[in-house]
């Protein structure tokens, strides 16, 4: 009897221990690691626009758990907190944070996003062409960095479009300064600015205008060497800008200088034509919009978001095209299979008819032989 009681007691004790261990295991699984808790807290504050609190949570995580699995994401998110808060100082802080992210985590999948946001942060600070172009040049430098580091990225075509836009701003700034010099008789000053546009920005939308102004400056010179340069600029207009308002004038000047008039290069003409911005027409609200942009009331577009949406749309379009091609290919396969079956059925029917005819012919021969007998 005592032996039975001892066995029952031992069984109850073991069952209790197993139950406690299972409960403890469940509790351990339900506990969120403190580094993840800090990351989630910082992310929640970031979504709510409480940027200082979000940075405090992320910084605490990085200081306390530098080897955490979410340390890289926390570092990137700190950059986002400055980026989303906006303003010159915060955007510059965001740029530093993203640059450090690339240094510390060069192989991280979000390194591409970091460089894109560096470009976008500087893009937000670009002034109009008639003002200081410090951030325009910085944007162009960061675009070059992206092309060098992430040349195989899906974002590369989009970034190259940004280059064209940024270079256009710089070219317009140089053109404005050159025109200022020219209007005041400073020919050398104007010449330097116009020449810089031609040398640095081959896709400038008003390249033909700059070429014509350079041609005029050199044609007015008494130097025969300068006249040769004038011929070169006029010839480029005649060859590559048949749509230009200076096209006929350039051809006339070439004739007056005794130069040969070149044939139109249709390929280059199409390229330059694509660079010309289509006029949106006059809008009475445009002066107000421009004034609002100058004062910062109308924020510039977020190029990072634009890039994401553009890439997503392109991927969706490619997926639709692939699905359509697959559907068409499947339809072709079905059609081919149907034709094969028809051909096979026709062949079988022909064979059957042939066999029946042969059998009938054989029967007829047999009857004929019997009659002969």
Model description:
The chain is 78% helix and 0% strand. With 373 residues, the protein is mainly alpha-helical. It has helices at 2-30, 34-47, 51-64, 71-85, 88-104, 111-123, 134-149, 156-183, 187-200, 207-220, 224-240, 247-256, 266-275, 286-295, 303-372. Helix 2 (34-47) runs parallel beside helix 4 and helix 10 (207-220) runs antiparallel to helix 11 (224-240). The chain has a domain at 32-121: Serine Threonine Protein Phosphatase 5, Tetratricopeptide repeat, CATH 1.25.40.
Main attributes of the structure:
373 residues, mainly alpha, Serine Threonine Protein Phosphatase 5, Tetratricopeptide repeat, 15 helices, 78% helix, flat
CATH topology of the domain at 32-121: Serine Threonine Protein Phosphatase 5, Tetratricopeptide repeat
- Compressed to H and E, one letter per element, the order equals HHHHHHHHHHHHHHH
Q: Give the termini separation.
A: 114 Å
Structural class, judged by helices and strands?
mainly alpha
CATH class of the domain at 32-121: Mainly Alpha
The backbone outline, from C-alpha atoms, is: flat
Q: What is the overall pLDDT average?
A: 84
Largest sheet: none
How much helix, percentage-wise, in residues? over 70%
CATH superfamily of the domain at 32-121: Tetratricopeptide repeat domain
Number of separate helices: 15
